[in-house]
Design goal:
globular; 7-stranded mixed sheet; mainly beta
Length: 121
């Protein structure tokens, strides 16, 4: 089973930037699509961004499109989320997740422990 470890969360003022990283164990990283999810207090977990196994296909939630950028480095088994122009409504716990196939489909099979992102107004 893969281990996913997020880092990079923290407290930032509105309009600021943060970069989240996810490190994955194992030697089959490129075979699976990956995604970033977030969950705010009292809300359901939502998919923020996703990327195919090869990195050529990305998708974003409408609420973050144009502000967030997802990327991956298969040689280093890492995935990142660059977050710019942050808003208070971006405050949530952000989770790294691995899908079950090379393309994004269905639900993730593996999750990281999450990292807190707090955006102050």
């Amino acid at each position: 089973q893969v281990q996913l470890v997020e880092s990079g969360g923290g407290l930032v003022q509105a309009g600021g930037s943060l970069r989240l990283s996810c490190a994955a164990s194992g030697r089959t990283f490129s075979l699976y699509a990956m995604g970033w999810f977030r969950q705010a207090p009292g809300k359901e977990r939502e998919n923020v961004a996703a990327i195919s196994g090869g990195g050529g296909i990305t998708s974003y939630a409408e609420s973050v499109r144009g502000r967030f950028t997802i990327s991956r480095d298969n040689a280093k088994n890492t995935m990142s989320l660059e977050m710019n122009s942050l808003k208070p409504e971006d405050t949530a716990i952000y989770y790294c997740a691995r899908f079950q196939k090379r393309l994004v489909s269905g639900s993730p099979s593996d999750w990281g422990q999450g990292t807190q992102v707090t955006v102050s107004s």
